[in-house]
Amino acid sequence: MSDLRKAAQALVVRWDTPAWKDAPHTGQYIDELRAALAQPEQEPVAWMSTNKTWMWSNKDKIPDRWAGNVIPLYANPPQRKPLTEAQIAAIDWKDGETLHDFARAIEAAHGIGEK
C-alpha cells in the first residue's frame, strides 16, 4: 500500500466519529474517500509517450527526456464500486423520464458515457 493510501486510510479511521460526521458535508467527503480507498491499487504494465510514438515495458528504461511525458497503461481497469448514498441522492431524476434515462444517469454517475 502506498504512503498516500496509508495516510488516507488513517484519516478515515480517525475522522469516522459522530462529531466529525455531523459537520456539514463531512460524511460525504468521508464516503468519497472511503470509496476511493476501496479501489484496488494497480501497477502499470507499460508506459506510453504522450504523443503515442514510444512505449516502454519497464519504467526504469524511460529516458530522462521523457520523464513527465508518459502515460501509464494498465492491464485491466479497476472494478467499479456501487454508488454511495450521497452519489445516488445527487442523481437528477425528473418525473416522466424513462428507465433508459435512469440507466444513463447511473452511467454518468460512474463516469461512463459520452463526455
What is this structure's SSE topology?
Layout: H1 3-15, H2 18-21, H3 26-38, E1 46-49, E2 55-56, E3 70-73, H4 85-89, H5 99-109
Antiparallel strand pairs: 1-2, 1-3
Characterization of the model:
This protein is mainly alpha-helical. The chain folds into 3 domains: 1-41, no CATH class; 43-77, no CATH class; 82-115, no CATH class. Helix content is 40%, strand content 9%. It has helices spanning 3-15, 18-21, 26-38, 85-89, 99-109, and strands at residues 46-49, 55-56, 70-73. Strands 2-1-3 form a 3-stranded antiparallel β-sheet, with no helix packed on it. The chain is flat and about 55 Å long.
Strand content: 5-15%
Question: Low-confidence segments, ≥5 residues, pLDDT <50?
Answer: none
Structural class: mainly alpha
Biggest sheet descriptor = 3 strands, antiparallel
What would you call the quaternary organization?
single chain
What fraction, in percent, of the residue positions are helical? 40-55%
Q: Which whole number gives the mean pLDDT? A: 76
In short:
The chain has about 120 residues and is mainly alpha-helical. The protein is built from 5 helices and 3 strands.
Key words describing this protein structure:
mainly alpha, 3 domains, 5 helices, 9% strand, flat
